[in-house]
Amino acid sequence: MAVSIREVAERAGVSVGTVSNVLNRPEKVSAETVQRVHSAIDLLGFVRNDAARQLRAGRSRTIGLVVLDIRNPFFAEIARGAEERADAHGLAVLVANSDEKAEREARHLDLFEEQRVAGVLVTPVGESVPRLERIQERGTPVVLVDRESQDARFAAVAVDDNEGGRVAMQHLLEMGRRRVAFVGGPVTLRQVSDRLRGAQSVAGEAGLGLEFIATGALTVEEGRRAGRQILDRTSDRRPDAVFAANDLLALGVLQSLVMTGDARVPQDIALIGYDDIDFAAAAVIPLSSVRQPAALIGSTAVDLLLSGARGSGLGAAKSIFRPELVARASSLGS
Fold first, then answer.
1. Who is most buried in 51, 61, 230, 301, counting CB within 10 A?
2. Cα 176 off chain centre by
3. Cα radius of gyration (the chain)
4. What is the pLDDT of residues 190-246, one digit of tens each?
5. Would the pLDDT of 54 be above 70?
6. Are 91 and 34 spatial neighbours (Cβ–Cβ below 8 Å)?
7. Cis-peptide into 26, omega within 30 deg
8. Angle CA 298–304–126, to nearest 5
9. What single-letter DSSP state applies at residue 22?
10. What are residue 20's phi and psi, to 5 degrees?
11. Coil, strand or helix: which one is 200?
12. End-to-end distance of the chain based on CA atoms, in angstroms?
């Protein structure tokens, strides 16, 4: 049976109010009384009912984080950065996975509101603006993560994905590639469409086209499927380079090419991914990638949330990082 705060007060010889002050406002209580109350807590095994306290206060000491795919090490690293920064402020992070599905995202957001989280960090699936606006209007601050806000309604932390697409394409052109394919999808994800648009702009400036090979998700399995689709063509109809919307897709493409041996990387097909997850450098052919500072994105999102940054007529705070090319064996040489 749970020990009550009244039992702690009786054991320590103080009032219930004094025990409450020790737990919540210890500076109002003498050091000797604080010690006596904590001794009673330890002796009785008292555990405070934090849920009840949070209901009275109106907010919990948790932050809700909704990511597109927790299996992707990029989002796991964002969560780690957010958790470390939140922990420094005495907060916890609850991580939810939308699996790139709008209905799952909506359920997670509803649950976080019901639990009265201190704020929500979210990488939206498609256009979730109306729902996020309602959450914010009801008093729960929202920060977009890995997604730049297009207006002043939300704080946002992201990398300039349009620039990232340009950086990747410029690198491939500098390596002498001219038949480049972009592998990625769904394009309803802003990150994918921005990376594609950046690559298309560079291709257009060079007087070249950019083939688009659509995928249903940003996964290794979808990358393998795209790789097989490329290998089904005759060698003269294959691209001489692939820019994948993220590293998981790129690793899947690489696996298809390497397993068959029918196309050499990078001699026949150069390959570049996006995110620079740990597995990129460890691949059988080290993978070139456009790096995003994942942990820094997570910690910065918490900083914005705690600073109260939100769309409130004064404009929303934004932190936009520049991407960085990390060139490795998969795109270097010919």
1. 301
2. 33
3. 25
4. 999 999 999 999 999 999 999 999 999 999 999 999 999 999 999 999 999 999 999
5. no
6. no
7. no
8. 65
9. H
10. -60, -40
11. helix
12. 71
Tell me the residue type at 211: E
pLDDT class of 55 with cuts at 50, 70, 90: very low
Give the orientation angle of helix 129-137 with respect to helix 102-114, to 10 degrees: 0
Note every long-range contact of 46-54, with CB atoms under 8 Å and residues 24 or more positions apart, other chains counting: 46/3, 46/4, 46/5, 46/7, 46/8, 47/2, 47/3, 48/5, 48/23, 53/24, 54/116
* Spatial separation of the C-alpha atoms in residues 168 and 318, rounded to whole Å: 24
Q: For residue 40, count other CB atoms closer than 10 A to its CB.
A: 21
Q: Concatenated DSSP letters for 102-145?
A: HHHHHHHHHHHHHTT-SEEEE--SS--HHHHHHHHHTT--EEEE
10 Å CB burial of residue 270 (0-12, 13-18, 19+) is: buried
Half-sphere exposure of 121 (CA within 13 A, CB side): 31
For the record, the structure tokens of 78 come out as 């964002």
* Residue 31 main-chain phi, psi, to 5 deg: -60, -35
Quote the tokens at residue 325.
């090319």
